[in-house]
Amino acid sequence: MEKVTENGQVHRVAIALLLYLRTHPYAKDNVEGIASWWVNEHRALVQKSLSLLVMQGVIKEERALYSLSDELRNDVMGTRFNVLVRDLQSFDDSRN
């Protein structure tokens, strides 16, 4: 049950990160800054969420700074962005 709860938290934070980046598509920060300023969450949870989004090609990591991928930045109000948020939400909903 703990793993399901953790996955839900990771997806919740991933959604928060995507929504932050939708509003601030050129934002770039390290894990500590993202945890403190973007989403106000624990660093470990933010790191797991960032890893998930990097693995999906949504966020890029350059020299320990994370930012929206160039492809998604060009489509921040478009279909792919909305599909990513919806998929993360539906995954979280299916675990409850």
In short, what is this structure?
The protein is mainly α and 96 residues long.
3D structure, described in words:
The chain has 96 residues and is mainly α. The protein has a single domain, classed as Winged helix-like DNA-binding domain superfamily/Winged helix DNA-binding domain (Arc Repressor Mutant, subunit A, Orthogonal Bundle). It has five helices and three strands, in the order αβααββαα. The chain has helices spanning 2-23, 31-38, 43-55, 70-73, 79-95, and strands at residues 28-29, 59-62, 65-68. The chain has a three-stranded antiparallel β-sheet. Helix 1 packs across helix 3. The longest helix has 22 residues, at 2-23. The protein starts with a helix and ends with a helix. 21% of the residues are buried.
Strand content: 5-15%
Q: Name the shape in a single word.
A: globular
Number of domains: 1
Number of helices: 5
Just give the CATH class. Answer: Mainly Alpha
Order of helices and strands: HEHHEEHH
The helix fraction, in percent, is 55-70%
Give the tally of β-strands: 3
Oligomer: single chain
CATH superfamily: Winged helix-like DNA-binding domain superfamily/Winged helix DNA-binding domain
The CATH architecture comes to Orthogonal Bundle
Order of strands in the sheet with the most strands? 1-3-2
Mean pLDDT value: 87
What's the end-to-end separation, in Å? Answer: 10 Å
Unreliable sequence segments: none
Rg computed from alpha carbons, rounded to a whole number of angstroms: 13 Å
* Structural class by SSE content: mainly alpha
